[in-house]
Design a protein that fits this description.
This protein has 22 helices and 16 strands. The chain is of the alpha/beta class. The strands form 3 sheets. It has a 6-stranded mixed sheet, sandwiched between helices. It starts with a strand and ends with a helix.
Length: 585
């Protein structure tokens, strides 16, 4: 009997890296782990970046397949193999490009044509030993029909309309809303810093505009699908394969049915004998199949990870934050006065919850203050509302206390884009949390505060676990006293008993208020311990506007017992540095 295999498949592109772990006897392909991490195009990332990405993936795999975009030459494969050998020194390795894993996912060892449309786009065909390609020359020269290409065409049309008639089109409004920009002119600054992936994320706005009657956007989408169909015909002709099976791969096809339909229609004219279907499976499965030496059944059975997810969902359903509040039934039937009274009454629970956690709050303040006084840093990690509150508190430390921005930092699941819009699934990957901690350089002497209303957010728990491995101190803040504690507790834990929300599960309400107050408490007390407050005054505030200039003058006037005008003159001479002004008395 063959020994059990643990096969890790990794497929990386410009936008994301997908991975899957298959486990089981012989050819039983049970998916026991899977996830998504940031992009890993071999031509766009450094060896250190890839090493960190590999470090958060399962280490006990017996077979590992790593297939990345940009891995095109023997030199590329040698580089990638060297990195994989360091991460999995005892595993059997398979190395190649995402073309290989894409074809394997779509066809296994059989022949066919794979049409890939995600951030970029390309067509790859195989018949026997011969492989042909069209497209995929990168965003500057090619990638016709991909997300970047469609988004760039949309951006150009938006600006053209504005230049010609000063008109803000519905697409322009949606792009500004998506990017959280105020004016169309702000697009220039954004575009100068935007990378390929950031531009490609605007593709859904293009499809939305095409669906809702903007003819130029419809023509853009049709042209994208059309050129991919033409590339497919060209590949089929070079392979002498007119009846080729064609599989459509990538987010533009799986998330936008109309794009697949447009492609099918156009190809039915250009190559009527071809058969077309959408492949919704991850390229990581093809990478795993190749790592398992390209044999056996290519069917996948969900195993341990699904069971674990079911157990996790059951635990979440029992969380205090997920329970129905008996005091807020029939909200739609209440008057405005009753709703306001209910909200103000429920917010009283926040003060009681903070008082109930007095000892835990004291311990957490001491933990953070001690670390910062010794030269460490404070990191907040969260997803959704929790993550946004962490980033907000961190962003207010430099202007309020004059502290360097690296002293208190926020790590948000999904990155900056998730600050102003929800991004599906980003909080469900513990590996992504661990990678974020590695990328941000969390180290011994730092403190990492995980924020999760339920106490079970995978991104947060993965970040905490990785931080502990580095020697950093760890703190978990929740609003779920009934949660199941980890076998190995964190250095400090705060579970605020705010009770059920007015709207069931909406933790932006009482849980959000309690979290905001707690973060205020942690960071403010730490800044006081660092000497950045004098009496009750912000002597290190960053003066950047008229309001703050007035505040600084009044502070100097009161502290030195001098008139307003004299205080202003002294502060001006001190370069609007309050601490320096007071020290010069």
């Amino acid at each position: 009997m063959e020994s059990p295999k643990r096969i890790l498949g990794i497929e990386g592109g410009g936008t994301k890296t997908e991975w899957v772990l298959l486990a089981g006897e012989a050819y039983e392909n049970k998916v026991s782990g899977q996830g998504t991490l940031p992009g890993s195009n071999l031509r766009l990332v450094t060896d250190d970046t890839l090493a960190r990405l590999f470090s958060v993936l399962p280490t006990d795999a017996t077979h590992v397949g790593v297939f990345l975009a940009g891995c095109a030459t023997e030199e590329d494969r040698t580089r990638l193999r060297g990195l994989a050998e360091k991460a999995w020194p005892r595993a059997v390795l398979a190395i190649g490009s995402d073309r290989d894993s894409g074809l394997a996912t779509a066809f296994g060892a059989e022949d066919g044509i794979a049409v890939i449309a995600g951030t970029g786009a390309a067509v790859h065909g195989r018949r026997g030993a011969r492989v042909e390609k069209a497209g995929g020359w990168g965003q500057l020269l090619g990638d016709r029909g991909g997300g970047y290409d469609l988004a760039m065409q949309g951006l150009r049309l938006v600006l053209t309309h504005y230049d010609l008639n000063q008109r803000i089109t519905p697409l322009a409004e949606e792009i500004l809303r998506t990017l959280a920009l105020n004016r169309l002119q702000d697009l220039v600054g954004w575009a100068m810093q935007a990378d390929k992936m950031s531009v490609a994320r605007l593709a859904p706005a293009i499809f939305h505009a095409a669906k809702h009657g903007e003819p130029e956007m419809l023509a853009t989408v049709q042209a994208g699908a059309g050129v991919l169909a033409e590339f497919t015909r060209a590949v089929a002709q070079r392979l002498a394969f007119p009846a080729a099976p064609v599989r459509l791969i990538g987010g533009l096809f799986t998330h936008h049915e109309e794009y697949a339909a447009l492609f099918k229609y156009r190809l039915s004219i250009l190559l009527p004998d071809a058969t077309v279907s959408v492949c919704g499976e991850s390229g990581a499965l093809g990478a795993a199949w190749l790592a398992g030496q390209g044999s056996g059944d290519r069917s996948w059975e969900i195993g341990d990870r699904e069971n674990a997810s079911a157990a996790d969902a059951a635990a979440l359903a029992k969380a205090a934050t997920e329970q129905a509040n008996p005091r807020s039934v029939n909200l739609e039937e209440r008057t405005t006065t009753e709703l306001v009274d209910l909200f103000t009454t429920e917010e009283e629970c926040v003060a009681r919850a903070l008082a109930a956690c007095r000892a835990e709050l004291i311990a957490a303040v001491d933990l953070v203050s001690t670390a910062l006084q010794a030269g460490g840093r404070l990191f907040y990690v969260g997803a959704g509302t929790s993550g946004r509150l962490g980033v907000l508190d961190a962003s207010e430390i430099p202007p309020t206390f004059g502290a360097p921005p690296e002293l208190v930092q926020g790590i948000m699941a999904g990155g900056a884009a998730a600050l102003h819009r929800s991004i599906e699934g980003v909080e469900d990957q513990p590996e992504a949390g661990a990678l974020a901690v590695a990328e941000r350089g969390v180290r011994a002497g730092d403190v990492l505060c995980g924020i999760a209303a339920s106490g079970r957010t995978p991104f947060v728990l993965g970040a905490l676990a990785r931080a502990r491995e580095t020697g950093a101190r760890t703190l978990l803040l929740t609003c779920n006293p009934t949660r199941v504690r980890a076998a190995q507790p964190w250095d400090a834990e705060i579970d605020l008993p705010v009770g059920p929300e007015i709207i069931t599960g909406s933790t932006r309400l009482k849980a959000g208020t309690a979290t905001k107050v707690t973060l205020n408490l942690l960071s403010t007390c730490a800044m006081i311990r660092l000497g950045r407050v004098r009496g009750n005054a912000m002597v290190d505030l960053h003066i950047s506007n008229a309001k703050l200039r007035d505040r600084g003058v009044r502070l100097v006037s009161a502290t030195l017992d001098i008139g307003y005008e004299e205080a202003r003159a002294r502060l001006e001479r001190a370069g609007w540095n309050v601490r320096a002004c007071l020290a010069a008395r």
